[in-house]
């Protein structure tokens, strides 16, 4: 399959279907085995990586560290803020008809690309 994602000091996955070079082969093999050793003590959900569990726990704690500089909406994940920012820059969510989402943000600011 090739040497996708090659890194210095990495080793190949050795799986015919994968072929990736990874820094931590043992951790990467969880992708294939389904092993998820990190469990949330609040809801019981399990994760393959400790970082994913740490991010998840912030949801239970109500931590929303990523804040929109335009309207002040707070998100628990950077990816969610990135999606929210599409509203302000005039992009519409993929597959949504133009009228399917509002032209005004929660704080009442008029969004770019709209009239009124």
UniProtKB/TrEMBL annotation:
Keyword field? DNA-binding, Metal-binding, Nucleus, Repeat, Transcription, Transcription regulation, Zinc, Zinc-finger
The cellular location(s) given in this protein's UniProt record come to: Nucleus
GO molecular-function term, one example from the UniProt record = zinc ion binding
Coiled coil region boundaries: none
Q: Which InterPro entries match?
A: Znf_C2H2_sf, Znf_C2H2_type
Q: Name one GO cellular component term.
A: nucleoplasm
Q: Which Pfam families match?
A: zf-C2H2 (PF00096)
Domain C2H2-type spans what residues? 38-65, 66-93
Does the keyword section mention Transcription?
yes
What is this protein's name?
A: C2H2-type domain-containing protein
The protein's organism comes out as: Maylandia zebra
Which taxonomic lineage is given here? Answer: Eukaryota, Metazoa, Chordata, Craniata, Vertebrata
